[in-house]
Amino acid sequence: MAQRRGLSPRRRGEVVFTARADVRAEPGRVFDVLTDWPRQSAWVPATEVQRRGGTPGEPGERFAGVSRLGPLVLDDEMVVVSRTPPAPGREGRVRVRKVGAVLGGVVDLVVREDGPGRARVEWTERILVRPRALALLATLGGPLPALLGRVAFEAVLRAARPELEGRR
């Protein structure tokens, strides 16, 4: 199946999307706030982000987004694979691997300068839904799961904006 603007699954159970945001803050600040994983608990509805091991801010750091909806719990286990903070003339990048039983895949977060005192955030998720039945549902959903993922993460980035910009 052909990929349309990052919305169509590439293979059974794979959902790919990119959320973007422009922020009035230095790229280093934006990068540091976004990669302080437990801080995301304030911006992601019904989710608590917990550190699970490794050195904070270093490859090998482990964390999980634990989402609850009534009696349903999703434990989205992740590990930081690589992390390069932004510097003058260099974008910041972090790659996270999803290693849970339900969700696999990778997350790439890029923060680049977009003019003086401004940053551009690109948050790309390539999620692989592991249980066969759920993977089939993701595939049958066509572009909808990716569209919902992009819209949800753009909402998360909007919720994070005051903290990213140092207004709270």
How does this model look, in words?
- The protein has helices at residues 27-34, 132-140, 144-164, and strands at 14-23, 47-53, 62-69, 72-84, 92-99, 103-113, 119-129.
- It is globular, with a radius of gyration of 16 Å.
- It is of the alpha+beta class and 168 residues long.
- A 7-stranded antiparallel β-sheet has the order 1-7-6-5-4-3-2.
- It has 3 helices and 7 strands.
- The chain has a single domain, classed as Alpha-D-Glucose-1,6-Bisphosphate, Chain A, domain 4 (2-Layer Sandwich), CATH 3.30.530.20.
- The protein is 23% helix and 40% strand.
CATH topology: Alpha-D-Glucose-1,6-Bisphosphate, Chain A, domain 4
Query: So how many helices?
Result: 3
Largest sheet: 7 strands, antiparallel
Residue share in helix: 10-25%
> What's the domain count?
1
Compute the CA-based radius of gyration: 16 Å
Overall pLDDT: 92
pLDDT < 50 runs, ≥5 residues: none
Helix-strand pattern: EHEEEEEEHH
Query: What is the CATH homology-level superfamily?
Result: START domain
Shape: globular
- The CATH architecture assignment turns out to be 2-Layer Sandwich
Write down how many β-strands occur, each being a DSSP E stretch of 2 or more residues: 7
Assign the CATH class.
Alpha Beta
Strand content: 35-45%
Structural class: alpha+beta
Spatial order of the strands forming the largest sheet:
1-7-6-5-4-3-2
Gap from first CA to last CA:
44 Å
